[in-house]
Design brief:
This protein has about 180 residues and is an alpha/beta fold. It contains 6 helices and 7 strands. The longest helix is centred in the first third of the chain and has 16 residues.
Amino acid sequence: MRIVLASRSPQRRELLGSLGVDFDVRPSDVDERSEGDPAEVVLENARMKARGVAEPGALTIGCDTDVALGNMLLGKPADEDAARGHLRAMSGTTHEVLSGLCLLGPGQGLERTGVARTSVTFRTLTDEDVETYVATGEWRDRAGGYAVQGVGATLEERIEGDLTNVIGLPLGLLLDLAPELRP
């Protein structure tokens, strides 16, 4: 079975590759939604990504991950000031990382979807913590402005749920939706 990952994320490629499956990468350029119910937004974005590159006979995987602080999606910070704002907003609080998954095919009209949720609690960050992290540049192109698999692990106090979801591709949900991918 041919597998297509509708993403340019190196983290998603690495996580999917960890399952030992061969796949093609076909990034989908869609105008992502950023407002509305967080779970509905990430699921719709995943669906648009998958539909944007779906091929007949292939299993196409679309995923969208974002950070919700209450009902507000943080998205990816545009610059260092926005990254500082994201980090300060999450300091000492618990936020939710949500990933929408949409699998299309390999048969005509087959669609499997789901949303993964992981709670992440940040420790209370000092101004120095924020400045040190922003200086790493690791926040660039990251939902919420941090990467838990890097230096960003120093920001968190507790993670409840699927760590792979926080990294960008919830493998537990993926395997629930596509058991044929199990190693």
